Amino acid sequence: MKKLIAIALFSVFALNSNAEVYRVGVVPQFEAQRISRIWQPILNRLNAETGHEFRLEQSESIPEFEKAFLRGDFDIAYMNPWHAVMAYEAQQYRPILRDQSRKLRGILVVKKNGPIKSLEQLNGKNIAFPAPNALGASLLMRAELTREHGVTFTPRYVGTHSSAYLNVALGSAAAGGGVMRTLAEQSPALRDKLRVLYQTQPVNPHPLVVHPRVPEELVNSLLGVFLTGSAAEELAVLLAEVPIRDAAQSSIDDYLRLQDLGLSDFYVN
Questions:
Q1: How far apart are CA 92 and CA 101, in angstroms?
Q2: 5 exposed, middle or buried (CB, 10 Å; 0-12, 13-18, 19+)?
Q3: Could you report the per-residue pLDDT of 102-138, keeping only the tens digit for each?
Q4: Chain Cα centroid distance, residue 172
Q5: Cα 76 to the chain's mean position, in Å?
Q6: For strand 194-199 and strand 106-111, is the pairing parallel, antiparallel, or unpaired?
């Protein structure tokens, strides 16, 4: 009996050691613990449904995440729309899934009872942004303020959306970039000090992308798990935390229009 158990254990170990492992990257909008809490249950379900192993590989920062997907480190990744264009151009990553029920807009907040009432009043002021290449909160916002409204300002990159909002509330910046979802997550006391002055044009939200080396059969299997059957119903609850609240199939055509916005002129390497 012991011999049979040993043989069985060896067989399982040998099978797992030869199994294909697919590396999954997630843009680090939040701290690592929160990303793991959101994504690990999703990957666990994909492991069970497909028979393949999907392993979460976290990046310490958005610049590190960018370097990783530009090298092609991830097999599958969740990224912002401009990252999707960059990843397609560099490695032929292609979007396969996105939320079809919403659009991404950047917002610019100012002090609720402060003196700033128009974009023109921001000329010569400091504006806080979470990071240079956060799409709605920074990249698209800086492009529109500069090109469409002629605002000249000094950008300050403060690390997170929460920090950008806090800088405005404390008077350290005249305005701050973010998105409506992260503003809604702030404490009521902080939100009550802020007012949305401006919103960018809408773009399609963050997609899930795959590298060309991922077999087409597996891509189709993933789409089937995400979009049909009982597994899709359970995954829908998990995906809402991402947030992808109404999952639909996607393609690079959903994002290539971003190339026409000249965002590369505002991208910070």
A1: 26
A2: exposed
A3: 999 999 999 999 999 999 999 999 999 998 888 999 9
A4: 27
A5: 13
A6: antiparallel
Q: 160-180 as b/e, with b when 16 or more CB fall inside 10 Å?
A: bbbbbbbbbbeeebbbbbbbe
Phi, psi for 111 (deg, rounded to 5)? -65, 135
**pTM, whole model, 2 decimals?**
0.82
53-56 and 194-199 beta bridge pairing: unpaired
Q: Which residues contact 152 (CB under 8 A, 6 or more apart)?
A: 123, 124, 146
Q: Which two tokens stand for residue 134?
A: 């956060």
Please give the Cα distance from 212 to 18 (Å, whole number): 21
Backbone angles phi, psi at 23, to 5 degrees: -90, 130
Q: Which amino acid is at 76?
A: I
- For the segment 17-41, what is each residue's pLDDT rounded down to a tens digit? 456 899 999 998 778 898 999 999 9
- 57 touches 69 (CB < 8 A): no
Question: Residue 182 in contact with residue 190, Cβ under 8 Å?
Answer: no
Tell me the one-letter amino acid at 160.
T
Whats the size of the chain, residue-wise? 269
